[in-house]
Amino acid sequence: MSRASSVPVLTIDGPSGSGKGTVSRLVAEQLGWRLLDSGALYRAVGYAAGMEGLDLSDGDAVTRCAQSVKIRFQPSADGADTRILVNGHDATDELRTETAGAAASAIASIPSVRQALVDLQLSFRKPPGLVADGRDMGTVIFPDAPYKVFLTASAAERAKRRYKQLKEKGLGVTLGTLQREIEARDERDASRAVAPLKPAEDALLVDSTGMPIADVVAKVLAVVRP
Ligand SMILES: Nc1ncnc2c1ncn2[C@@H]1O[C@H](COP(=O)(O)OP(=O)(O)O)[C@@H](O)[C@H]1O
Ligand SMILES: Nc1ccn([C@H]2C[C@H](O)[C@@H](COP(=O)(O)OP(=O)(O)O)O2)c(=O)n1
Question: Per the database record, which ranges form the Cytidylate kinase domain (predicted)?
Fold first, then answer.
């Protein structure tokens, strides 16, 4: 799937709440590499399909939406925050909700939707390098990446992290519901026929349960700079 390229890629795949987004951003900053948040693309398609009033299980309609949607990552002037524009609308806050995560997971199981996002993802591979965060970065999109990590943590810890994160954003959630939602999403992402959530054979497995973020970042950076 990926075209031959000499530009290095570090892939960071794993389940929801394992810390992929946080670790990818910090590692990309340290390396001075670009960042691909592939989950945001699936979230944006789910969101755009919802805005169009589409039935998320209507594969043809959602695929047309994925082929035509305009997604733009717009970094703030100081680079500390990135806004995500979907068809010109700043949808950053809506995209972070668990509802958007569940919609993303649902449309992500449609093979033609995944296919519609391939070229866009490959286009992020530019010098000096790319850190790619998702579910199938090391297995499907960048199988030739020289550096691959699969980041996990226990479901209980991932739910607690997400609970804290959403609470801080003022979103009303309960820990029990969140853990059930996370487990349901893991199950769907891991059991789908195309590009399921699973470690690449050549990925380093990192279990971040009980591990401070700085230690995870150091471990992942060491994959690129031993
Ligand atoms: N090792 C860690 N220890 C404690 N909290 C963490 C750790 N890694 C990430 N977090 C926190 O967990 C939440 C979810 O992390 P995030 O990077 O969004 O995960 P993912 O992208 O895998 O869903 C964030 O609030 C983040 O700060
Ligand atoms: N490369 C990817 C990235 C995300 N997805 C799907 C499956 C995920 O449940 C949703 C949302 O992904 P995202 O990485 O934003 O979610 P988390 O931050 O891990 O909760 O999108 C995918 O199928 N393939």
Answer: 11-224
83, 92 contact by CB (below 8 A):
yes
- As to burial, measured by CB atoms within 10 angstroms (0-12 exposed, 13-18 middle, 19+ buried), residue 166 is middle
The amino acid at residue 60 is D
Q: Does 167 sit in the ligand 1 pocket, CB within 6 Å? A: no
Q: Which CATH class is domain 9-224?
A: alpha beta
pTM of the model: 0.95
Give the whole-number percent of the chain exceeding pLDDT 70. 98
The whole-number average pLDDT for the span 158-174 is: 87
- Side-chain half-sphere exposure of 60, counting CA atoms within 13 A: 0
Per the annotation, does 16 bind a ligand?
yes
DSSP code at position 153: -
Structural domain boundaries of the chain?
A: 9-224
Query: Is the CB of residue 142 below 6 angstroms from any atom belonging to ligand 2?
Result: no
Establish whether residue 46 lines the binding site of ligand 2, counting it when its CB lies within 6 angstroms of any ligand atom: no
C-alpha to C-alpha distance for 222 and 93, rounded to whole angstroms:
33
Pick from 16, 12, 1, 11: nearest CA to 188: 16
Q: Which ligand is nearest to the CA of 191?
A: 2
